[in-house]
Amino acid sequence: TLPDTVRIVEVGPRDGLQNEKSQIPTEQKIKFIQLLAEAGLPVVEATSFVSPRAIPQLSDAATVMTSLRRQPAVEYPVLVPNLKGMERALESGVRAVAVFTAASDSFTRHNINASIAESLANFRPILDLARKEAIPVRGYISTVFGCPYEGEVDPHRAVEVAGALFEMGVAEISLGDTIGVANPMQVAHVLNLMLQADIELDQIGVHFHDTRGTALANVLVALQMGVTTIDASAGGLGGCPYAPGAAGNLATEDLLYMLNGMGIKTGVDLDKVVEATRFIAPYLDHPPLSKYYQAAIAA
Ligand code: HMG
Ligand code: MG
């Protein structure tokens, strides 16, 4: 069976813009976020409060978050790797955050200079502060389906990390196919292991990079198994500078086209997402990868 409604978590302004070579003016980033919120996306992940040396593209996070005109019904979470990031985010008026670790140690080492265990220890003070401020925390697990440094990843690792994150109080977990290697059978296997560990799939989101064209097939399996939160990126922007070979995320337009056709409600206006992508496209040094977007522009 398929769900009646799906919640799309838009990650373009964060996962997309963190990976662009060109320097995008802060004002245009803000406008992009606002256009996505106006399209009806319930969650627009806006930026990251990380080290400006690690991700120079998002070093304007504080300006983005203090200048953003917010819609009351929309959440604008940001990534925070450590307590310093959390404190900077709170100072900028942020009301939802995400912490991020992985299912493979060599990836977390490259990405956030910590082992998985060290990263979880770093998250504790973030979760404590979030609880005090009544701020929801999402937990990302990268490399669930494969690692750029280690290759195959034991799926039980993701289950262990998910258990640890839920235990410390994250509200939901997003399973990342960081380099876009997953196939539908693997997705079913990982989700079944989660179920066996008493993890409810309504607390799980899926985050597929579409590097090898399997993202929509993976989404369909996740939906059939009971997942209702899907991450996607306008235009199919995205990638991680610390994941060599990672290409764009599943495109929001492509996901919406499929869900609309299947009668699954999202509350998102596909034409308005296309408009948001069309707005940001001139600031990129490549055309957006979304297939639906390309077809719409050509028509
Ligand atoms: P480190 O070098 O170990 O950190 O980096 P440190 O604590 O030793 O600090 C080094 C310097 O950074 C210091 O500055 C700190 O103040 C500063 P200095 O004294 O040298 O001038 N610093 C900060 N500045 C601003 N905000 C902060 C902050 N923290 C330290 N929060 C660290 C460790 C985690 C900071 C670094 O590795 C980092 O920022 N990494 C972020 C990497 C990243 O953002 N990757 C992309 C997001 S993850 C992703 O894309 C995957 C996902 O999409 C899911 C999927 O697809 O799988 C989520
Ligand atoms: Mg990603």
Characterization of this structure:
With 299 residues, this protein is an alpha/beta fold. α7 packs across α8. It is built from twelve helices and nine strands. A nine-stranded parallel β-sheet has the order 2-1-9-8-7-6-5-4-3. It is 42% helix and 12% strand. The longest helix is centred in the middle third of the chain and has 18 residues. Bound molecules: 3-hydroxy-3-methylglutaryl-coenzyme A and magnesium ion. Magnesium ion binds next to loops. Belongs to the HMG-CoA lyase family. Pfam families: HMGL-like (PF00682).
What are the key terms here?
single chain, 299 residues, alpha/beta, nine-stranded parallel sheet, 12 helices, 9 strands, 42% helix, binds 3-hydroxy-3-methylglutaryl-coenzyme A, binds magnesium ion
Overall helicity: 40-55%
Number of helices: 12
- Low-confidence stretches are none
SSE string: EHHEEHEHEHHEHEHEHEHHH
Shape: globular
Bound molecules: 3-hydroxy-3-methylglutaryl-coenzyme A, magnesium ion
* CA radius of gyration: 17 Å
Structural class call reads alpha/beta
Ends apart, CA distance between termini: 34 Å
Rounded mean pLDDT is 97
Placed side by side, the strands forming the largest sheet appear as 2-1-9-8-7-6-5-4-3
- Beta-strand level of the residues, as a percent range? 5-15%
